[in-house]
Amino acid sequence: MVKSRFDIGRIIDLEKWHKLQDSLALVTKMAIITVDYKGVPVTKHSYCQSFCQKVRQDSYLSQYCQKCDARAGLEAVRLNKPYIYLCHFNIIDIAIPIIIDDQYIGAIMAGQVKLRDTDVPPLEQIVTRPSNAETDSKFAAYKNDYDSLPVLSYEEVTTIADMLFHLCTYIIEEAIRKDAAIEMYKKAMALGTAPASLDKLSTSERTYRHIQAIQNELSSVLIETKVKKSAGDAFLSSNPVLQPAFDYIYAHKSENFKLQAMAELCHISPSYFSRIFAKETGENFTVFVARLKIEWAKQLLETTDLSINEISDAFGFSDTSYFIKTFKKFENLTPTIYRNVYKSRTMD
Fold first, then answer.
1. Which of 31, 124, 152, 218 has its CA 20 to 30 A from that of 258?
2. Which Pfam families is this protein grouped with (predicted)?
3. If DSSP codes are grouped into helix, strand and coil, which group holds residue 64?
4. Comparing C-alpha atoms, which of 194, 186, 257, 250 is closest to residue 220?
5. CA gap 180, 215 in Å, rounded
6. Which CA distances in Å does 165 have to 39, 215, 331?
7. Calpha distance 95→43 (Å, rounded)
8. Residue 27 burial by Cβ neighbours in a 10 Å radius (0-12, 13-18, 19+)
9. Average pLDDT of the chain, as a whole number
10. pLDDT by residue (tens digit) across 28-83?
């Protein structure tokens, strides 16, 4: 299985998570355990039923429980939704995948219940166990524990599965946003560009209400810092009349520049500005600005991990598709291919 870039044990406070898991187990009447993307438990079982405790403690029977867990987790990932199935003792279990940004980071394993209904959609017994005299005698010994398993309707099981799926995904998404915001803040502090407005937020606001706002603000600050450092920060014109326009363009890389506005800045007419600008640069104003922005974009592609969308926004392109089209016009490559080619050359 491909390694997830998210570590569930680092993203969330497992002690607090386990308390929530205990509460969910009590409310739903299901035993619950959380595993990482490898299938390794990151919490203890919440209210594991006595029957399943005894089965899982048996060296022979427990191997079938482990096979059920492993196969059900993979099936839930494949379906990208909760997978309801029968274990090797025909007990109802659920594998609930936690998937963030198309990355599988773990699963909630819930169940250890029996169905009240008889008329339900056919459920797969994911692992079959050959019957023999020894296991039959063990089951007979555990019969009272088996009979005491909680009984739920099929509708209750599916409702609980959906609830756990959406609730756990939401909680982890929020935890990832918080983690990302903290990392951005550290980077911004290192660069000396952390927004002063963040210091005014209380601890509770940073933790809950303003996580997304903090992340957006920090992201903008970091991108702006990198943009300012890209290319040169000055252009010395041989014609001093044009210098105010060049100074403005290099100081405001994220803006869309209009010829008329630049002419007004230089206190000359648009037609005269256009003539002397072409003479100075060898290109008309629109082509020069587009080429310059692509050069700046190339530097960010080479030196940062910013997404194509972020780079497009950083240089004021109306939309990403237009940025890609413009980039390809000047470089005969898309931004993604350019970045990959550059990286492959630097690795050689």
1. 218
2. HTH_18, PocR
3. helix
4. 194
5. 7
6. 17, 25, 45
7. 15
8. exposed
9. 81
10. 999 999 888 777 888 889 999 999 999 989 989 988 988 888 888 888 888 888 99
Q: 240-347 maps to which CATH number?
A: 1.10.10.60
Domain 8-176 class? alpha beta
pLDDT (tens digit, 9 = 90+) per residue, 313-326? Answer: 889 898 899 999 99
What is the pLDDT, as a whole number, of residue 188?
Answer: 53
**The token pair that represents 202 in the structure block:** 């209380």
Sequence letter at residue 260: Q
pTM above 0.90, yes or no: no
Amino acid sitting at position 114: K
- Written as one letter, the residue type at 153 is S
For the chain, what are the domain ranges?
8-176, 240-347
pLDDT of residue 226 exceeding 50, the answer is no
Which residue is it, tokens 């005491």? 148
Contacts for 211 with CB less than 8 Å, ≥ 6 apart: 174, 177, 178, 181
